[in-house]
């Protein structure tokens, strides 16, 4: 429909040939922008899709592609807004961008397809939406998120707008991706680990190992001295006091080793047997797995380090305080008549006692002068040969004995005090350091006419030598006279065993070997309570205390509860390759009685135990054999006192 604008007709007088004639005159119309004229008279409005941008136009202009005109009478076209386009001329309205495309600018003549990695899910969009992290879109023109493909398990896509499967990254070591569409990998939590790339799950740390941090690529084995019991542990547990764990990867406390009897481990986290501490003298450890030593009770003592039991103080001695390493002899003027005493008893008036007395002794009234005896017994002795003996397997130790007899010679007649007490023994001469008493208990009490043998052993020397022995009696204390001293000199030639010389040479330096006393067979170089010779017999080091494993090789006294009563036994572990010349004997004694040690079982070169005692041997393990020797005496009740066993050794030496 054309819009027509009206116009005005004007009349003019025109001169024509000098004659004035009045005629009508029509002038051209001047149409405004937005209109145009076809006849010069009427103005027509521009139709939608067209415009007129100049006055006096005779035609309308179609809107060009990218623009449109919505109304009549437009003087200009309008750009298609973002999100729309105009593809042809003369458009009266823009077209929205279809799904899967977008138009980011004004005046567009076409829509732009969504790029790979993007999608457009609405019409008339002015932008495209990126595929979210964890997915990718490999095509153009995607019209919804359903076109996105999720990253597979074990991989992840950390950015938006991914357009290819290659955008997916493999989960690195120490992390995993458990689901599709992940935008990041998950670090393995503490207690778990990932040891390969592209993992879909973390692996639990097994017992014996742990993981303390996130992102671990492997578990950590429990350190020596520690254990881990549970799966997915984040830490390790210290081995408790009293036990040690020597290897890595322990999964329970059952992997630990208990400290041996006689030793203890005070601190947690021990990783080797060397952490075990020998119970010091004055204390003991009766069980395995101890975290502390038990202090010896009053009335008891422990003489050596590494003991597994305390020893009751014998009659004639006492222990007043806990932790003693030796009993105290009852001082002269006192006595102790029972085992396990904690103090000495004052003797009654009219009696007397020597040091170490087990009972007070009455004085003979008819021989007293101002309460002091004036006469007393006398002593007679004889040398006696005991042959060759040895405390160890590689050194000749020669024994000899002195027989002591109370001849009881008197001045005057009548009743008299006839007992004699041998108080002490002193050694002198060039072999003094290598002599010790091995038989006859002190103090030694002899009644009238009674005799006893004192036995001695010489070791640790070779060649010619001598020893001076002084016997001191109780006449000073009992009879008011000077104490009698009986002196003996014993000359000998001792052929030393070459095996012990080799042992000394392999363990001691030249300067140490020059100290003959310290390296002698009967000496204790390292002060651990075990003589050098015995350390050699049992294959130990004379310069350092035995470890927990080796300490159990040494003789240990046990008390066996049997149907007929209590029986003492000695247990030890010997090397199987003992020298054929070695003779071992287990000897027994009743503490507190004036008697020698008596052999009850002997092992000689025949390799067969002989004697009255029952001997049990175990299988050979690690080059050693365990031996259990039972005492021949059964203690039916506590009143029978105590029995003690010891291990002695000798080889055939040569004494001249």
Task: Write a compact overview of the structure shown.
This protein is mainly beta.
Number of strands: 58
- Mean pLDDT metric: 79
Give the biggest beta sheet: 4 strands, antiparallel
Rg, please?
A: 59 Å
By helix and strand content, what is the structural category?
mainly beta
Spatial order of strands in the largest sheet: 43-44-48-46
CA(first)-CA(last) distance: 161 Å
Question: Helical stretch count?
Answer: 6
| Strand portion | 25-35%
| Residue runs with pLDDT of under 50 for 5 or more positions | 1-27, 363-397, 409-417, 475-483, 652-656
Shape: rod-shaped
Proportion in helices: under 10%
Describe what this molecule looks like in 3D.
There is one protein chain. 5% of the residues lie in helices and 33% in strands. The chain is mostly beta strands and 656 residues long. The longest helix has 10 residues, at 498-507. It has a four-stranded antiparallel beta sheet with strand order 43-44-48-46, with no helix packed on it. Strands 47-45-49-50 form a four-stranded antiparallel beta sheet, with no helix packed on it.
